[in-house]
Amino acid sequence: MKLKSLTLMLALSVSATSIKAGGLLTNTNQSIAFLRSLARDGAIGIDGVYSNPAGVAFLPMGLHLSLSVQNVYQTRTINSGLTIPALQGSPFYQPFKLNGGNDNGVKEFKGKASVPILPSFQIAKNYEKWGFQLGFGIVGGGGKATFNSGLPTFERQIALIPALLAKQGFGSTTPVYSVSSYIHGQQYDFGLQLGATYKINENLAVYGGARFNYIYNKYEGNIIGISANINGQMENLYDYFGTKANALTQLAIQSQQMANQATNPADKARYEGAAKQYQAGADKLNKTKEDFADKYLDCTQRGWGITPIIGIDYKTGRWNFAAHYEFTTKFNIENNTKRDDTGQFKDGVNTPNDLPGLLSIGAQYEVLDNLRLLAGYHYYFDKDARMANNKQRLLSSNTREYLAGIEWDVKPGVTLSAGAQRTKYGLGDGSYLSDLSFVTSSYSIGLGAKIKVAKNAHLNIAYFFTNYEKFDKTYESTIKEVKVQNTDQFTRTNKVFGVGLDIDL
């Protein structure tokens, strides 16, 4: 009956999820210009403080400022199946059927994530040769994910309870189980970037800088009210076994009292033996009771690290070429745990939480004076970024992204743009994926406009959405010495609306 493995979230020590595509732990949507055209790695603009820092050197001398606010909504869906081959033909063969699963034994677990306000800004001051930049944004995580019905990771443990109860004589002809669970996680990587450009000549510029990353993670959750049908009645298992344990304890007390009063040695020995048996039974039931006790988690994680960044930009004719490299950021996050009934988040423990390095290459071509084509390529060094338990080794390859965009100045002061992005994750057989933290390969589309609203100011508006692929994971495991077969189908949705203002002074 032991349910020691029934923890809130074994995967909580890894990333919550990113807002948008990028490396496994990063966000690339740091400006509205990106949302509306995507392929910004070879573009020259103030948003280049993040996407093409060397290219910012080719903006006119003076001060350039960009402010952005994004509104992000996501859903995360896991359709999980569980079968016990040894129990085929019994009501316990597909346990999820006993608590909301469909006819095929598959149950849906759905979480929602939102970021009502995702801010970022970029500032650049250009001189004749030198330029200096400052940027801020949430470059990793940034969302709040809530699963109001729990996750498959721990419901699989609970789903076996009716079969285990029946094996020990506590079953029912109509087995059912229930549990109330709640999981809320949030993760923020606040990135403050500083750097400088040097314009070697009218065609070539270079960049050097660094980003200071501060990580803040917060996880809260509970598992309460584990219940099952016993002899035709739903019973809270903690209370049920507690009541039975108390009854045996009372019998043990009564038997010991009778032993104390007995004058016949044989009677005394018999009563003492009964008292020991009753107490042993009570101790066993109390131990079992604790397996079904309500469990809570309240843990905050913090850490920091520095990302060195270098870049280069080359202009020739109607072409612009650019590249930049972000080094892998090495750092740990430390647990500040107020309560942890799971035993997985010991206070003060440090966990590896590196950010992957990034190689970005981009190009822009002016087809006409008012028409530009853009392209970009991202390569994230995910397998070099340390994670808890060396989870990165489960990846089959690093993340790759392919981006394309177009900008059309339909008239002076009005620019329409659109773009697309293909993100490919090296997920292999899916061993890397967990309930709370998962990604799948995707296609993204963005569109929007840039409108001149003042002599030195432009308004950016954009809508961005991502179509995620479904990823099927099949694996075997053993739960309480019971061999089970598991299936998980992962998918997500992502929608972003953004507004920003660019100012030149």
Detailed description of the structure:
The protein is α+β, with helices and mostly antiparallel strands. It has a single domain (32-504), classed as Porin, CATH 2.40.160.60. It is 15% helix and 52% strand. It is built from 6 helices and 18 strands. The protein has helices spanning 32-37, 48-51, 152-159, 161-167, 237-261, 265-291; strands at 62-83, 106-126, 130-147, 177-199, 204-230, 233-236, 295-316, 319-326, 332-340, 350-352, 357-368, 371-381, 397-411, 414-426, 442-454, 457-468, 471-479, 482-504. A 14-stranded antiparallel β-barrel has the order 1-2-3-4-5-7-8-11-12-13-14-15-16-18. β15 (442-454) and β16 (457-468) form a beta hairpin. α5 (237-261) runs antiparallel to α6 (265-291). The protein is elongated and about 110 Å long. The termini are far apart. One of its GO terms (cellular component) is cell outer membrane. It is found in: Cell outer membrane. Keywords: Cell outer membrane, Membrane, Signal, Transmembrane, Transmembrane beta strand. This is Outer membrane protein transport protein (OMPP1/FadL/TodX). Belongs to the OmpP1/FadL family.
